[in-house]
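Deliverable D2.4 — example input (structure tokens):
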């Protein structure tokens, strides 16, 4: 793999495909507002969509989405966006759309094109952009999942590589833009107390959970073709696992980081269908856009082993799902019990726990045993907690950081193709072999089978 150039030039325009879609509404417009407010965004933002809207309708849509997340938007910033937002309407299948876009982008030298559209449309759009003669000035930002299995990811990469070098492809996994997720690196590599215990000698298991207490929220047509394994486990959860498990890079830069993550993915054998549990919430089949009798999973749990020296024999359990009991994103590290249980009566079954809370109000908790008050030498668990936003101030939003990075040409926080292909290889037997699907109730923690996977119960969230 040729090392990437460290940094590309700053973008002079941002183009958003899927500008009237869900991702733009929920994440991208609020991110653009923040970028404009901080003075980072100085360029035009050209939306592309098939919805026939006037400039005014488009701007209203953007402002509505901003007002949902920003308490009192600044009129000056909205005024700036009004002047700099533009919409080009057309059909993705028709070349005229790309030719119109090329006219609109005349004179622009560093064009960032963000594809906030279903992955199935990526190829068509890149072909259109290429035919319009835009590709030599473009860097392309593509949303996950990159492909839908190993074969299609290779195919997609081949088709992109024909028109674009790797250094101008930015593959998004927005979890890599979360400050809370990045904190795993700082926690592990800026503090010397963890390294001696960060291995199979001291750690008995790792559990990674991303759960949501809501269903598919009208995204049926998209979600039904994807499912929890492809939507979250292949990308978000495996990326978090890699940050927990990887060796320290010799320097923090995108190339070294991806090299270390790649070594972890390579040390994971393809998942065995018996170590994967798929579930579907009761009521999913009635959601609009979902195919009758669909066997798409809305829950997935997996047991993963990393076959290397550091992690030999340590189970990594991953789970994700929609319509579960809580919305949370956590990593729970369970430590081994001491070699002799001096306070056996109360100590047994209460191992030390280190918990990374990576979702809203992120922070770290450490669960220790302390002496219970009174005469006896019995123990009881106590928690040491820190909530980072209270201790350090508010975090930035992931999409804002990723858009800024792509516009400045910085690959940190984006995934590299070799890692992405490895993650598909890991899932290959379970996305094509399709393990059985178990129903679960809305508001539960998924199918009972997921507990059997961990040999009891998941550690409480
Ligand atoms: C997206 C998935 O990548 O991540 C969604 O497609 C999911 O299904 C979302 O809801 C969760 O993101 P976050 O940042 O809220 O954890």
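Example output (designed residues):
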């Amino acid at each position: 793999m040729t090392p990437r150039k460290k940094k590309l030039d700053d973008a002079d325009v941002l183009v958003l495909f899927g500008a009237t879609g869900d991702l733009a509404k929920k994440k991208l417009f609020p991110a653009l507002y923040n970028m404009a407010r901080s003075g980072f965004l100085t360029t035009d933002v050209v939306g592309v969509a098939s919805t026939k809207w006037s400039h005014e309708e488009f701007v209203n849509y953007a402002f509505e989405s901003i007002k949902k997340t920003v308490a009192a938007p600044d009129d000056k910033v909205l005024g700036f966006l009004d002047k700099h937002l533009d919409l080009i309407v057309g059909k993705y299948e028709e070349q005229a759309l790309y030719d119109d876009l090329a006219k609109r982008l005349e004179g622009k030298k560093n064009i960032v094109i963000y594809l906030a559209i279903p992955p199935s449309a990526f190829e068509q759009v890149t072909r259109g952009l290429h035919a319009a003669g835009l590709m030599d000035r473009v860097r392309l930002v593509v949303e996950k999942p990159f492909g839908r299995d190993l074969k299609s990811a290779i195919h997609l990469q081949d088709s992109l590589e024909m028109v674009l070098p790797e250094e101008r492809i930015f593959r998004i996994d927005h979890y890599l833009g979360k400050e809370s997720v990045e904190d795993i690196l700082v926690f592990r590599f800026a503090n010397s107390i963890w390294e001696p215990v960060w291995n199979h000698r001291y750690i008995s298991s790792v559990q990674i959970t991303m759960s949501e207490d809501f269903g598919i929220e009208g995204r049926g047509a998209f979600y039904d073709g994807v499912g929890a394994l492809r939507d979250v486990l292949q990308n978000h959860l495996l990326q978090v696992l890699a940050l927990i498990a990887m060796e320290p890079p010799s320097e923090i830069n995108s190339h070294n980081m991806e090299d270390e993550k790649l070594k972890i993915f390579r040390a994971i054998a393809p998942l065995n269908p018996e170590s994967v549990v798929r579930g579907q919430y009761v009521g999913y089949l009635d959601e609009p856009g979902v195919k009758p009798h669909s066997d798409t999973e809305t829950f997935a749990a997996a047991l993963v082993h990393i076959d290397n020296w550091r992690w030999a024999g340590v189970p990594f359990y991953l789970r994700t799902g929609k319509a579960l009991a809580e919305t949370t994103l956590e990593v729970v590290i369970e430590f081994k019990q001491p070699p002799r249980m001096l306070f056996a009566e109360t100590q047994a079954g209460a191992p030390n726990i280190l918990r990374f809370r990576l979702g809203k109000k992120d922070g770290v908790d450490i669960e220790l045993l302390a002496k219970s008050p009174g005469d006896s030498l019995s123990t009881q668990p106590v928690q040491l907690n820190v909530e980072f936003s209270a201790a350090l101030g508010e975090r930035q939003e992931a999409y804002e950081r990723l858009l800024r990075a792509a516009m400045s040409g910085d690959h940190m926080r984006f995934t590299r193709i070799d890692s992405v292909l490895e993650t598909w290889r890991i899932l290959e037997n379970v996305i094509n072999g399709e393990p059985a699907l178990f129903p679960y109730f809305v508001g539960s923690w998924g199918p009972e089978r997921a507990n059997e996977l961990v040999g009891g119960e998941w550690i409480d969230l």
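The two ends are 40 Å apart (CA to CA).
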